[in-house]
Amino acid sequence: MAFVSCIEFNVSSTKRSAEFYKQVFGWDAQLFSKDNDYWTVAHGDAPGIDAGLQKAQGAPATVAVITVPNLDQVWAKAMKAGAKVAVPKFAIPIVGYAAYFTDPDGIVVGVHEYDEKAK
After folding, report:
1. Integer distance in angstroms from the first to the last C-alpha of the chain?
2. Which CA distances in Å does 74 have to 3, 62, 80, 94, 112?
3. Is residue 103 part of a domain?
4. 87 belongs to a structural domain
5. Structural domain of 35
6. What is the CATH number of the domain that holds 33?
7. Are residues 57 and 95 part of one domain?
8. Are both 72 and 119 inside the same structural domain?
9. Tens of each residue's pLDDT in the chain, 119 residues
């Protein structure tokens, strides 16, 4: 079953935002990838979902990322239902695949499929 696995904060400065959220919530953001300046905040054993900080491509925003068992199938359903491509499918090495679409109201939604073999 699909579930919200993380919320991504698309921000103007990842370092500034990491420090802000540390001061406000005690979050310990860790650099996940130097290539795309992506930071993660794991919730550990506490209730909740993980968070990600990344450089905004446009206006700063938050995006829910939904983990699905088969990204290609969900993608096809979304496109058929009226979604529009925001970011086509891409690999996250050793983690899986992700893509982003906008729903009919223009809300950006991320979809993710775990696959340790992703390159």
Report:
1. 25
2. 13, 21, 10, 21, 10
3. yes
4. yes
5. 8-61
6. 3.30.720
7. no
8. yes
9. 899 999 999 999 999 999 999 998 899 999 998 788 999 999 888 888 999 999 998 888 999 999 999 999 999 999 999 999 999 999 999 999 999 999 988 899 999 999 999 99
